[in-house]
Amino acid sequence: EIDLRRISAFGRTFETRTFSIGIDAGEMAAMAVSPEATAAAARIGERGEDPALVIGVDRMDYSKGLPQRMEAFGRMLDA
Hints:
This is Glyco_transf_20. One of its GO terms (molecular function) is alpha,alpha-trehalose-phosphate synthase (UDP-forming) activity. The chain has one domain. The protein is elongated and about 65 Å long. The mean pLDDT is about 80. The protein has a two-stranded antiparallel ribbon with strand order 1-2. Helix content is about 40%, strand content about 10%. The protein has helices spanning about 25-30, 35-45, 65-79; strands spanning about 5-10, 10-15.
């Protein structure tokens, strides 16, 4: 038996829900110009020379594409 929120199978009932995996772009933009972000950028700049900052955003199943990411990171270090 299946309805929009519950699935009954194998003698058990499971409840289903959906969760957004996106971000609030407006909130993210506001965070980027916040005093905290500005201070963090200044600290990074104070480290001297030409600092490199690597940021990654991944899904929970982070194993997909891992070899390619490691290869790209290695190329960046070699550059």
